[in-house]
Every structure is written in C-alpha cells, then in structure tokens.
Amino acid sequence: MKKAGIIVLAVFTLCLFFASTTVFAEEPQYGGRIVIRAAQDPMTLNPFMLGGQAYAWDISYAINGYLFVIGPDGEFQPDVAESWETPDNTTLIFNIREGMKFHDGVELTADDVVFTFEKNLDPDFASYWHTGIRDHIDSVEKIDDYTVQVNLVEPFAPIFYSLLFPIVPQHAWEEKGEDFAYEPVGAGPFKFKEWRPDDRFVIEAFDDFYAGRPYVDELEFRNMDYDTALMAFLNEEIDVLEVGTEDLDMVEEHDKLHVVNAPGTSWFYLGVNQSEGPLADERVRQAISYAINREEIIENIYHGAVQRATGPIVPVSWGHNPDVKTYPYNPGQAVRLLREAGYEDGVTIELKCSSGAVSTMEIIQSQLALVGIEIEMVPMEWGLLTEDINNDDFELHYRAWTRQTDPERGINRQFMCDTNTNIAGYCNPRVDELAEKAVRTLDIEERREYYFEIQEILAEELPAIFLWYGFTRSAHHERVNNFSIDPYYSYRTYMHMWLDN
To answer: What is the reported pTM?
Structure first.
C-alpha cells in the first residue's frame, strides 16, 4: 500500500500558513486550573449533535478522541488513527492506536470507530455529521480490532475534513442513553468533571492519555456575560478571554495581560437574494460594494483586527486568489451603476442582521444612504435570522462563515446551484462545473486553477458582498505559559500550557 493520495493532498490543502502566535516559557510544571470565559452553556455534549454550538466544540476537542486533529499549522495530526493509507483514490485504511483508552478505562478499538461511522451514516439518526458524509461514503468495514477501512463512492479530495468527528465509545453510549449528552465519556486529553448549568463546565486532565497528561489539572469554562468577564479578567480573576475590539487598548495597557492574534478561518459578507427585485441586477450589487467604505469600518470598529475580503476563500488558504476584481470605496461609481440600472432616484432594500451586528450595519446603512440606497434594517434574534436565511426570506443579510478549511467549504457549499446552503438564488453552470472538478481531482495545482477561476467569476457577479476576513484573537493572563491560538478552536492547545503557580 502507498501512503498518500488523499492524505498528501489533505496535508497540502489545509491552510498552510497558520502561524499561531505563541508565548513560550521554560520549565513546565504540572497543576492548577485555567479559567476561560464562556459566553453560554453548551446545549448538549452529545458528540453526534454538536451543531453550531461554539463552546460545545471547544469542549469536545478537549474531551474526545478523533481519527485525527488539525494542528495549529493546518496539518492533520494522528490521534485515534495512529496512521492511515490510501491504496487507491476511493479507499481509506485507518490504523487504530493500540492501547488508547476511554476515560472509563475501556480500550478504544475498531468497533468504536465503526459504530461511530454507522451512527453518523444512519439517515434515521439525524446526526449533525450525516450531511457531510452521506454522499461520499459507500461502506465502512472492520478489518481487525485495530484496522478500519472506509470505501468512498468516488474520489472526493476534501474527505478528511468530513471525517473530523468525535469517536464515541459504543459501550458507554448504550449504557448511559440520554445521560451521555450531559456526562460524556471520551478519549481526549481531558475528561468530564462537573457541569453546573448557567455557571461553569469543568474538565480535568486525563492521566492515561496516550500522549501524556496535560500540564494543568483542570480547565474551567465559566459562563459569564461579556462585561462581567472583562472586569474579572482585568482583576485577574479569570485567565483567558476573547476581548472585544473596543476593549483592546485597555487590555493591552495592563501589565499582566497579553493579547494574541492569529490569522483566522472566517469570512464576513452581505448575503444577496438575487431571485427578484433590484438585487437581481448585477450593477446594483456592484454599486453596493463600491459604496461601502470597508477601510473606515475596519479601522474604527474593528481596530484593524479584521482584513478586507475579496471572496469566500481566506488568505491563509492555498486556494485564495489574491488577484480578483476588487471594489475600492468609490461612491461616484456606485451612483453611476445605479443610474445605469434605472435607479437614478434611489432604491430601498431590507437588511436582516443579528442584534449584535447592529452598530456595524448602521455604519454601512449610512454609507449606502450617501449614494441613494436606503437600507431598512431588521435586527433579529440569531435563531430567527438563521431560519429566514435558510428559507430565502431576505433581500440582504449579514453573516459569517467560520472554520473555512478546504476551499470546498467556501465554494461548493455556498455557490453551487442546488446546495442547501446556496446563497439565495445564485446559479452559474460554469461555477458548478469547476467546483465539481475541484473535488474530484487530487492534484493540488489543478484544484487551485479551478478555485482561482471560480473566485474571478464571483468577484464579478457578486452573489455576496464580501466584507472582511476575521482574525482569531484571545487574551490571557501572564501566569498562563506557552499560550497559543488554534485557528480551528481546538483546545488541544491547552495540553501544552502551564501555570506559574
């Protein structure tokens, strides 16, 4: 059997230039608790049902075993799978790490891996992971206690990204039933200790983790509103906080607090429903893009903590095209395009956004008003906004896509004609053709050519108004040594951190 095919591609197709910023110290020591602010409780820690819960993902990476994890530099790193092979373009063979234990002491074997795949593939089980693998995996076989073979329907270059799900212990799932979601058993470096709803979630170091136990004894995710958490952080009562841009200067002035930034994997945009009305005209969409002064917003609202966006593939990705058409701030050009489109007297467009985005959208609202585009803003609770977006019930909406890894996630899932996450009404057969070719070839250079052309098309047609790329930013107390940021929010990074006291 030969190494690679898909895995070599997978390593290269990750965002290769994630240089997570790290503060190093000498003489690591064991012990202590790192306290991290959490914005909310996880709704569930059922590994099959994580969905879009940010803090549930954070905890899941810490407590669960995965076939592999994404390292801070973007490469796949072995975890449950000690190694893997691809004898051909539709066969994956995973060699399971012998002696790896779940937190209850039971050994993790091929049976648990096959069980996890089968639950995720079961159409009647409604796993969060089902959609990402159902069309790509034909079957999963146990070869022996430490070998699992996955058979693909056809070559699919980004398949490894679809396999980033926790491996669930079959025995504990069947024994615990519904309680598993609230007392999870995993095989990661930390294990469940305590959950006080609306207060804190505590996990502790797992002594028998195959790579050695973490330095800290415990991680505590403390549920706090932001203002309370900021005061606690400034008073050195908590150790880690995602600091709002408006508070960066205050935190940076504190002698014992440090802010760390790293390139992120998110892109922010105005989604455009172009099925009817003024936004069906490409010239109106281009006028909006010309009328938004992104630099003003980046400087005054985000304090330089985001980067101007030109498309849906983040700059740290191998698939990012830096040479597409751009829309510098040019209100005169915006007015000319509106006149050409027949809107010399102006146009009114509704914009839906989450309540937390109102201040930023008000600036865009005022900028568009200068060229005759009146924005009627509709702030909404996040769940209702998502429902309206999914039902194409909007003209414009403000949103972000996060954790964009392979370009397939930024292109194929949002801009192909018939995907369920298509940005409303957009359909270009040439984009579909290129996107389909890009996931069927394992040649990285060929894939890059396809995605570069797609980005050129999107930059011209603007099925979305691309705004900015996010950074991953966090702050920590100086007593936390070897602090680093993982762009994928995988708290395996906490394995390597330690406390002075």
So the answer is: 0.80
